[in-house]
Structure of Carotenoid-cleaving dioxygenase, mitochondrial:
Amino acid sequence: MTIRNIFLKCLLIFIHATAARKTYFTKVHGLPNISPLVSSVEETPEPIPTTVKGTIPTWIHGSLLRNGPGKFKFGNQHYNHWFDGMALMHRFQIEDGQVTYRSRFLRSDSYKQNSERNRIIVSEFGTLALPDPCKNFFQRFLSRFEIKPTDNASVNFVKYKGDYYVSTETNYIHRVDPDTLESKQKVDWSKFIAVNGATAHPHFDPDGTAYNMGNSYRNKGAFYNIIRVPPERDGPEDNLEGAKILCSIAPRDKSKPSYYHSFGMSENYVVFIEQPIKMDLFKIVTGRLTGKSLNEGVYWDPNQETTFHLIDKQTGKEMPVKYHAKALSTFHQINAFEQNGFLLDGQAINNFLVRQDRLWMSRPLPRRFVLPLNISSETPLEQNLNTRPDSTATAVCRTKNQVFCTFEDLHGEDLKDYGGLEFPHINYARYNTKPYKYYYGCGFRHLVGDSLIKMDLESKKFKVWRQPDLYPSEPVFILSPNAEKEDDGVILSVIITPVKDKSTFLLVLDAKTFEELGRAEVPVNIPYGFHGVFNSSA
C-alpha cells in the first residue's frame, strides 16, 4: 500500500459526524498529490540555521515545539495509518529575529524495538504487528494474546509541573528536554492513578493546575475519568505524583465507551462530550487474535444522541443535569466560559455521511452550544431557556435533569468555501475560560489544512492567509509584550509543500492584520504533523 493510499485511508477511519440534518461538502476538483507530506524523513539532531525573509519580531524569545509522525516504514513493512508513524519532535528556536531548527525521533520503546529488528514489532492504531518469525509456533500463537499499548507519543507536547512531555492517548508519556529534544523518562499514568490512558490536550488553570481525561477499564466495564495534576513538584524526581481522579463517569454502554480526543473547561466546570464515536472493547481486545488492528473496533452510531457532562472542578461532583444533542462529533474544543447563568461551549464539529457502506468526510465547522446552568424543579419544560439576545442556539428542558440543545454557528456561509475550520486556537494565556472575540485555525479544502484563518466572532467575518501548494500546520498564538487587545501578538505556523523539495518554512503572521511579517526557510524536509506549543524563554 502506498503512502498516498495510507493517508487517504486514515481520513476514512476516524471521520467525524452529525446526523439527521443537512451535510455540506466542499466541491474541489483536481486536488494535487500531497503524499510527500506523509513520507519518512531523517532527523536533524543538531541545530541548523534557517534563511529569514522579511522580519521576525525581535521580542519573540523561545521555541515552537511540534510533534507528529515522521517515520512510516521499517524494512519492507509500511504502517497502514497516518497516526501510526514514529514520533518526530521539532524545535524552532527564535531569538533576536533569527531562527534555528532541529528535530529528533522520540526514543520510545516502540521506535527502539522496530529499529533493532528493522520491522514493525509494536502494533499501532491502524497497524497490527505480525508475530515475530524468529519465535517458534507456540510462542507466535501466545503472542496473539498479548495486548501492549504503544508508547509512540506522537500527538502533542504537554506540560506538567514545569516539565515538558510528549503524549499520545495511551497510558505512556515521555518527559523530554525542550532544548535538545532528548528523551529523558518514560512515565506510566497507571503507576499514579487508575487510568489506562489520557488525552494529549490537557487544560490549565492560571496557577498551573492541569486537568485531563482518561479511560479506565475495570471488571465492571469502562469509565471516563477526570484527572487533576497539581502545579508544583515535591522534589527533583517528582513527575505525576499527586495526580488524582477528580470524578469517574460511567458510559451509556460500559462495553462500548465513546472515543474522545479532547474536552472543554470553563472557570468552574470540566465539560465532557460523550459522542457516538464508539469503541467496541470486545473487538479491540480480541483484535490481535482475529488479526484486526485497533481502528477496526471504532465505529459511528448515528442513532445515539450526544451527551454533555458537567463536572464541578472544586467538588469533583458530576452535575445531575445532562445536556443532549443530536448525534455529532468533535475532535477539538475552541473555548468554554460561563456568563449570566449559561455555559457557552464552542468546538469544531465535524460531519460525515454514510454512503454505500463508506464514511465520507465533510467540512469541520465551528459551532457553539449554550447550556443553562440554573436548572431546578421550577424550570419550565418544552420552551427555549436560552435568553441570550445574540444567540440562535436553543436549550429546551425535557425533564428536571435533561435538557435538549441545538447549536449556533460561529461562522458565516463563506467559511464553507475554505473547507471549514479545524485545529482551533485562541489567545489561551488571557482568554481561556473567558469571553473571547477571536479564534484561529486551518481551512480544509484538501485532506490537510491548506489555509490559515482568523475568525471574528462578533461579525463572523474572517481573514485568510493562503498560497498555492502550501499547507500550514495549526496556528499558535503568541502574546506580544504590553499587549492591550486580544489579538495583539503573532501567529506561528509551519508551512509545508509537497511539490518542492526542502522548502518548509516557519511563517510569522501579525495576529491583528493577518499579514505576513516574515518566514524562516528550513533546508530539510519536514512531514505534516499534529500539534505543538510555544515554550517562552523571555
In short: The longest helix spans residues 3-13. The two ends are 47 Å apart (CA to CA).
